[in-house]
Amino acid sequence: MTDKQPFDMVVARHGASVLRVCRAVLGSVDADDAWSETFLSALKAYPELPADANVQAWLVTIAHRKAIDITRATARAAVPMAEIPDLPSGRSTDHRDLDLAKSLAELPDKQRHAVVYHYLAGLPYHDVAAVIGGSADAARRAAADGIATLRKTHPGDAGRTKG
Amino acid sequence: MTTSNHRDDELFANLSPIGDTELQALRDRLAARAEAAELLDVAYRTIDTPVGTLLLAATPLGLVRIAYDREGLDTVLSSLAAKLSPRILNSPKRLETAARQIEEYFARRRDQFDLPLDFSLSTGFRRLVLDALPDIGYGHTASYGAVAAAVGNPRAVRAVGTACATNPLPLVVPCHRVVRSSGVIGPYLGGPDAKKLLLNLEGAA
What we know:
The complex is a heterodimer.
Chain A: H1 7-26, H2 28-45, H3 55-73, H4 98-105, H5 109-120, H6 125-132, H7 136-153
Helix pairs in contact in A: 1-2, 1-3, 1-5, 2-3, 3-6, 5-6, 5-7, 6-7
Chain B: H1 6-11, H2 20-36, E1 42-49, E2 52-59, E3 62-68, H3 73-83, E4 88-90, H4 96-106, H5 124-132, E5 142-143, H6 144-150, H7 157-165, E6 178-179, H8 192-201
Parallel strand pairs in B: 1-4, 5-6
Antiparallel strand pairs in B: 1-2, 2-3
């Protein structure tokens, strides 16, 4: 007997945020595959997940591994977001912030992961550290360094209006 | 939960807007892949009918649950997660035939269902009662006492009532055709109005 939620509710609750994470880590081309792989693996393992587990952190951990698999499989380790330089800068038709995506893609892996998992996925640094390895303090520093770089290359963003 | 300040959160506000349709497309693809990988223990969908929205759920063995709106979609799914498996996804494909047959039933183009059924939510005497219900044909009714007699336990009238009230597959397993001997139609999972509608539809009331 388990009082676990139906998996469908997990997808409903976390689907969008996991997709944001996949896009930020991998770029939008490979993100859909990473999302599918993540939720398929999660579905498989779900019955064994402890009932009190942090589902968001669990999903981000799986997505992190899947993103690494995909990056290796497509031999893009050196250029994590190979498609981005081909895109125009500014905003895409769906208001995606392409400049920021590009800046994010150019961060060192550890900084990008720390920034994405903390700021985008909302994980506390303790959980970020569990996903990327190292200490919570190291994760905090990596995220701070990453944010500082993004602020430099992207100074006006916070004040920008949508659309 | 996070210690990030407002400005840093805002930095990412437009990084990746996600539309409902693209997320739905991903969810559909996940359901198809889960089915192919035999990881989809329970598929569900909803359909709109004259007795309101119905939830249909199926295991790989067959239709396992039909639920009325008043039972609460989330409650029913949570109960399926606990009793069967939490590997549950919205996946209309496995329920196409069931949905079509129910639609035909409400259009008066079908008087019996031909579907694989999974009775794993019913055991013992309740299961015995459910097995006997399809013997009450379309357009006919039987009393709780008559059903009790039919399953060889004429004094178990109350237990027949409980079996009907907990029928996991109402409509397809026709507990709506079991009425009180006084002629009063009696209680129903989907409410007395739904029971009346079904009996009227079948020309039995």
